[in-house]
Amino acid sequence: MTDRSLYDLAALTDAVFRNEQARLQQILAQEAQLRSALADLNAQARTNASLSSQGVREIGADMLWDGWVRRMRADLQGRLAMVLVRKSAMIAAMRNAHGRKIAAESLLEQWTKTTASAHRKTLNEQEQSLILCQQTLLRQGRPDQMS
Questions:
Q1: Cβ–Cβ contacts within 10 Å for residue 49, how many?
Q2: Is the pTM of this model over 0.85?
Q3: N or C: which end of the chain has fewer CB within 10 A?
Q4: Cβ atoms of 116 and 128 closer than 8 Å
Q5: What's the pLDDT score for residue 134?
Q6: Are 34 and 79 spatial neighbours (Cβ–Cβ below 8 Å)?
């Protein structure tokens, strides 16, 4: 692989990971909204149960209210269950994206270290060759050709 392709790979895997994070944040917001709606519904049901309901019972409104609360609770719990399933799948996808991101970063880091080491080695060899040439010229008595 070339240095450009490794940089591109690292950038791409990072972008995929960030996209997965953003998608997960949306699901977490939906989960929080549904949990809040369930908590509000439960609070309303508790408040209604504590009120004096003699007149309400006479006309059957308490049974209608209880039926509505049950239907709403079932609907909210069903929607929450679907969100939790999607959340679970997204967490798995985010784990995979994170693993790929870490692997790409590791490859790039390893390549950078190897390239830097090879570059240092080449510079050292060039410097040693120059020193040997200078020493040879000095021995031959031609210091004027050194630069």
A1: 12
A2: no
A3: C
A4: no
A5: 82
A6: yes
